[in-house]
Amino acid sequence: MLDVKKLKELIKLMVTNDLTELDLQGDGERVTLKRGPGDQKVHYVPTAAPVLQAGEPNGTPPTNGTATPPAVGQGQADQEAGDTGLEQITSPMVGTFYAASSPDAAPFVTVGDRVDPEKVVCIIEAMKVFNEIKAEATGTIEKILVQTGQAVEFDQPLFLVRPD
Amino acid sequence: MLDVKKLKELIKLMVTNDLTELDLQGDGERVTLKRGPGDQKVHYVPTAAPVLQAGEPNGTPPTNGTATPPAVGQGQADQEAGDTGLEQITSPMVGTFYAASSPDAAPFVTVGDRVDPEKVVCIIEAMKVFNEIKAEATGTIEKILVQTGQAVEFDQPLFLVRPD
Amino acid sequence: MFSRILIANRGEIAVRVIRAAREMGIETVAVFSTADRDSLHVRLADRAICIGPPAPADSYLNIPRIISAAEVANVDAIHPGYGFLAENAHFAEVCRSCNIEFIGPSVESMSILGDKVQCKQLAIKHKVPVAPGSKGKIEDEADAVKIARDIGYPVMVKAAAGGGGRGMRVAHNDISLRSGIKQAMAEAQGAFGDGTVYLEKFLENARHVEVQILGDQHGNVVHLFERDCTMQRRHQKLIEEAPCPVLGNDKREDVCKAAVRLAKAAKYFSAGTVEFLMDAKQKFYLMEVNTRLQVEHPVTELITGIDIVKTQIRIAAGEKLPFSQKHIKRHGHAIETRINAEDPDNGFTPSPGQMTEFEMPGGPGVRVDTHCYSGYRVPPNYDSMIAKLIVHQPTRDEAIATIRRALGEFDIGPNKTTIPLHIRLMLNGSFRKSDVDIHFVERLFGQR
Amino acid sequence: MFSRILIANRGEIAVRVIRAAREMGIETVAVFSTADRDSLHVRLADRAICIGPPAPADSYLNIPRIISAAEVANVDAIHPGYGFLAENAHFAEVCRSCNIEFIGPSVESMSILGDKVQCKQLAIKHKVPVAPGSKGKIEDEADAVKIARDIGYPVMVKAAAGGGGRGMRVAHNDISLRSGIKQAMAEAQGAFGDGTVYLEKFLENARHVEVQILGDQHGNVVHLFERDCTMQRRHQKLIEEAPCPVLGNDKREDVCKAAVRLAKAAKYFSAGTVEFLMDAKQKFYLMEVNTRLQVEHPVTELITGIDIVKTQIRIAAGEKLPFSQKHIKRHGHAIETRINAEDPDNGFTPSPGQMTEFEMPGGPGVRVDTHCYSGYRVPPNYDSMIAKLIVHQPTRDEAIATIRRALGEFDIGPNKTTIPLHIRLMLNGSFRKSDVDIHFVERLFGQR
To answer: How near does any CA of chain A get to the CA of D395, in Å?
Structure first.
C-alpha cells in the first residue's frame, strides 16, 4: 500500500504548489487537488480524528502570522480551548507567577469568578518588579493553569475563560 | 493497518507541513491531505491526475523487493509500458549494445517483428565477450530504446514488446 | 566554573555556544522568540524559554526579558553571541549588577574601544597604526575641510559609535565633504543616538585583515594570528580565511603585536578582534575593535586548534589563559563561506520559508555550523545566514578544492541560497590568486 | 595523474573516495546494485552505472561486471575501498591486465601478506615481534599438540587465509586442540577455499593496536603512527582512537618501526595496516596485515593532517610520497565511533528500512562520513554501518566530551542505531581510563 516516502512527495507537491487539498485514490485512479486561501475563519470542530488533535499542539506558526502559544502546557490548553470554545489569558512576559498579592492574601481570582478586561487576575514578577496582569477578556474563569511561584514564559496560557 | 510509529510519522508530517487534514484508507489506496485554514468539507473534483503521473517515475523501489529499472530513460519507458501494457526486455549486464551481429549485417530485430522467448534480439559486449540476449517474451517489438554502440547498464530497458 | 549559562542569542551562534558549554559540562538555557520555536538552539539546550514575539526589540534585544529569563532559570552567566546585545556595554553592566556574569570584556573596555574616536586616540598613544585624519571628533565643517585638504582627498566621514557601514560617507572634494558630514551626523544620531563623527583618509584598493585576540582577567593577552575578510559585499563579509594569503611573516608579526598592544592598553579580557585595512604595500590602518566573538572565529579555531568559545567561557569564570603566545602555532589554511538564504541572481532578496530539503556536506576537512535541519522554516524576521561552511587543509589550494567540493554537496530547497555565488567565487581566477580588495565582489557584480 | 577513476564499492567509503577524487580534479564513476539506486555515492559521482541485483556476488563482488563498467566508462583506475574486492589479489591482477590501475598494493605484496603463514615467516625474518607458535602450517595433530604443550595453553588455531574471526578456535587442552584443528580447517576450507591452519599462543587481556603504513612505488615507506582498536565486539571494531592512550613513546617508536620493516620487506606500496596484539606489559605480537584502506583511517588523518585516500591515489599514479617520516607529526587525540543500524538492546539485530529522520551533528571538532541522508532507505543486503562519527580535540578527555556531545545531536529514526550504546561506552569509567582489553565490550554485555 502507500509508503511514507510517497506521502512525503505528495506533501512536497502540496507545499511547493500551495495546495490546500489533495485527494488520491487507488486503482480507479482519482486525484483531487485544492489550492489557494480557503475560508480564513478557524473552526474548532470537535472531531474524532486523533491525527488532527495530536498534530496541533506541536504545530508550526499559522501562515497568517499570529504567534502560537508556547509548548509548555500549551497542548492541554489548546485542546480544552478548542474543544469548548474557551479563551486563554496568556503571560505577556517571562517571570514568576503569583495568584495573590501576598502569601496571606486571597487570590485575585478563583474558578467561577467573573472577570472583565480591566480585572487584575495575577502578578508576574520579573526583575524584582511585580506586574499586575489584567484579564483582557470578559467571562468566567474556567480553569487556572499555573501555580503560585511557578516560572512562566512569554505567551504561556495562565487561565482559561469562558466568554459571555 | 497503521501502527503507532507510522501514525507518529504522519502527525509529524502534518505538523511540519501545516496540514489540517489527512485521510488515509487501506487496501483500496486512498489518501486525503488538507492544508491551511480552509473549509473543512472535502470536495472531490475529477481530474486527469497529473500529480500521480509526475510523482511516480521518481518513486522509491516497491517494498516487494523487485528491482526498479534504472534511471536512464526509465521514466519514458515506464510510462509507455504502463500506459499501453507493454513489456520490457532489459539488459542483464553492463556493456555495449549492438543491434546486429556485425556492422554490415541486418539487425536481429526491427519494430514490428514477432519474437518468442528464445529469439536473439541483440548482442551486449562485456569484457570483449559478445553475449547474445534473448527476448524472454512473446509478442511484437514495439520500440527499440537504445542504439548500436551505446553503453547500457544492468536492468536498463532495451526493447518494448507488445505481448500477444 | 559556571554550572549553568544562558545564551542571549539565536541561530548558529547559539548552537555554537551550547555545543561548547555542553562539552565543558555546563548546563545551557536557550531563549527564543515565537518565530524561533523550532530552531535547533531550542532543541539542543537543556532548557529553553520563550521571551517574546518575533520583533528583536521585544525579544533578543529586550534586556529586561532576557534578565528575567536568566533569573527564572537561575544561571551563573550569559553569553551574548554576536550581534544583538553582544557589544552593548549597558547590557553587560545590568548582567553584572544582577550577579550574572557577562561572558565578554569589562564594561570599561567595551566603552572605550566601542567609541571609535577614543579607540583611535588610544591606538595612536600605543603606536598602533591608524589612518591619517582628524585627531578626534569633528567640531565644525571648516576644520574638517582643512584636515581633508591636509591629508588629501578622498576622505571618509565616520560615526564614532558606528559599525556595519552606517554613518559613513566618502568625500572626494570640499562640497561632498560638507554635505557628507551633515548626512553622516544625522544618520549616526538616528542609528546610534550619537551624532559624533570623525574624519579619516579613504583607502582605495585595501584589504580587510583582522587579528584575533584573547585576554584573561589577570592581564595576559595573546593573539591567534590574523584573518583575511577582504571578500565582502556592502560591508557584509562573504568569505573569510586564515592566514591572509598575501601577508609576509614580518608584517604579520608587526600587526599581531600591535593588536595585542591595543588590547593591553584597554585592559581587555575575553575574545576580541582588532580590524585593520591593509594597503597594497602591506601598510596597516586600524579600522575598529569588535569587543565580542566574530562570525568568522572558526577559521582561527581550525588553524590554531584553540576553541575560542570555550576559552571565552573559562576567562569569564576567572581562569587564566591555558597557553602563552609561544605555544600558539598555525597549521594549514582555513576558509569560511557564509551561506545565506538569499537569491544572488535576484539582488540578494531574502528567501525565507520552509526548507523541505537541507542536506549538509561532510567528510574530511569540513565543518558546518548551522541551526538548520531538513524541514526547518527560515523565519523572515532575522538575518538570512543559515549556515557557515568552514574547511581546513594543509594549503590554500587544497582548502579551495575542499570548499568547492563541499559547496556542491549541499542540497537545500526550495529556498534560494548564496551557494551558487560561492561556487562561482571559488572558481574565480582573481580570488584563487587572492588578487582582490574589499570592493572586488561589488565590481564583479557591477560587470555582470 | 588519472583523469577518471571507478569506485568498486558502496556506502560511506565510496563517498569518501569520491570526495578525495573530486578535490583532486579526477572524475568519478560509481557502480551500484539495484538496492543502492538512491545511495549518496550514486548521487555524488560524475557518473553512476548499475551493475547488478542486490546480492554482492552479482554486483560488488562480481569482477566481470565491474571490469565491464570500467571499460564502458573508460576509467584509468579502480579504487576498491575496503571489504568486497579490496584484498582480492586476483581482482588486482585482472584490473592491471586490462590496463586499469588497481589503487592498492602489488599483487605480490597482497599475496604474501594475505597468507598469514607466509606473512608470519617474513615477520620473523625481519625481527617483527610475533606470538610464539608453529613455524608454519600445521601438518598433523600430533605435531600441533607438541607445539601447544611447548608454548603452553591456551593456544589459538588460525586459518592462513583467515580474517574477521572466521577459521579461528581457542584450545585450552589437548582434546579441545584436536577438535579445534578439525573445525578450523573445515571452516577455513569452506570460507576461503584453503584449509591451511597454524598455531599461536592465545593472548588474554590483550589490546588491539595497529600501525598505519604508506609506501610509494619508489621504495619509500613511512608510518602514520598507531591506532587503538581495542573496543570490539565479536571481532568487529566499535570504537577506534589515535594515539593509543596507554602506549609509551619508546614502545610506540619500536612498533611503528617494526611495521615499516615488515612493509619494506614485502616491497609494499599504497596504504596498509599492520595489526598487533599488545599485552599488559606493552609487548607486541603481529596479528595480520591489511593490504587496503581501513574503516578507521580517519582517526589517523585527523591526528596527522594527512589525507590517506588522496595519498593512495597519488601513489597508484606513480608519484613519490610527498613527505618523509620526520615531517609527519601527531596533534591531539581523535576518536571514531561506527554507527550501525542495529538495535543494541535486542541482540544487535539489523534495523534496515527508510530513515525518515537523519540529522547529523556538526560544529567544532566533528567529522561525519556517511552515505545516508534524510529519507534514505537502508538496504537489508549489506553491512549495517550507516555513518562514522570522528572527532579531534587537543586531549583525549576533550575528544570524549566532544563525541559524547555529537552522539547526542544525531536524530535518526525510526531505525534503531548503536548510538545509545556508544553514549553508554563514552560514560563508562573503564573506557574513560582506557582500562580495557579486546574482550571488554563482550564482558560488559555479559554482565548486563
So the answer is: 39
The CA distance from A126 to A118, in Å, is: 21
Element (H, E) at D60: none
Instruction: Tell me which chains share at least 3 CB pairs under 8 Å with chain B.
Output: A, C, D
Q: Which residue of C has its CA nearest to A96?
A: C72
Beta bridge partners of C222: C214
Residue D340: the pLDDT is 97
Query: Could you tell me the pTM of the whole model?
Result: 0.85
Contacts of C272 (CB under 8 A, 6+ apart): C105, C113, C212, C213, C214, C215, C263, C289, C290, C291, C292
How close is the nearest chain D Cα to the Cα of A3, in Å? 10
Q: How far apart are CA D173 and CA D152, in angstroms?
A: 9
For testing contact with chain B, the best of D34, D100, D374 (most B CBs within 10 A): D34
Helix, strand or coil for residue D324?
coil
Q: What is the dihedral of CA C386, C391, C397, C398, to 10 degrees?
A: -130
Sheet strands (E) in B26-90: 30-35, 87-90
Interatomic CA distance for residues C302 and D373, integer angstroms: 26
User: Contacts of residue D16 in chain C, CB cutoff 8 Å?
Assistant: 363-364
Residues of chain D with Cβ-Cβ distance to C366 below 8 Å are: 367
* All cell numbers assigned to C108: 570599561
Domains in chain C: ranges and CATH: 4-103 (3.40.50.20), 132-201 (3.30.1490.20), 207-444 (3.30.470.20)
DSSP D248-270: -HHHHHHHHHHHHHHHHHTT--E
Positions of D marked catalytic? 292
**How would you class C93 by CB atoms within 10 Å of its CB: exposed for 0-12, middle for 13-18, buried for 19 or more?**
middle
pLDDT bucket at D110, cuts 50 / 70 / 90: very high
Percent of chain D with pLDDT over 70: 99
* Cell, residue B37: 485554514
pLDDT of residue B66 exceeding 50, the answer is no
DSSP code at position C34: G
In the stretch 361-380 of chain C, residues with CB closer than 8 A to chain B read 375
C305's torsion region: left (phi>0), alpha (psi -120 to 50) or beta?
A: left
Q: D371: nearest CA in chain C?
A: C362
- pLDDT tens digit string along A3-51? 666 666 666 656 555 566 666 655 444 555 555 443 332 222 222 322 3
Q: Compute the distance between CA of residue D259 and CA of residue B159 in angstroms, rounded to an integer.
A: 56
What are the cell numbers at C28?
545551557
Catalytic positions of C are 292
Residues of D whose CB is below 8 A from B75: none
Can you spell out the DSSP letters for A19-43? EEEEEEETTTTEEEEEES----SPP
How many Cα atoms sit within 13 Å of D70 on the Cβ side? 29
Q: Using CA atoms, how far apart are residues C270 and C423, in angstroms rounded to an integer?
A: 35
Residue in chain C closest to A16 (alpha carbons) equals C414
Dihedral of CA C147/C150/C154/C155: which sign?
negative
Domains defined for chain B, CATH in brackets: 4-46 (no CATH), 74-163 (2.40.50.100)
> Is D90 in contact with D63 (CB distance < 8 Å)?
yes
Q: Report ipTM for this prediction.
A: 0.77
**D39 to chain A, minimum CA–CA distance in Å?**
15
Strand duo D155-163 + D166-171: pairing: antiparallel
pLDDT per residue over D340-399, tens digit each? 999 999 989 999 999 999 999 999 999 999 999 999 999 999 999 999 999 999 999 999
Cis omega (within 30 of 0) for bond into C243: yes
Name residue, grid cell 514495439: B142
Which chain A residues touch D354 with a CB distance below 8 Å? 3-5
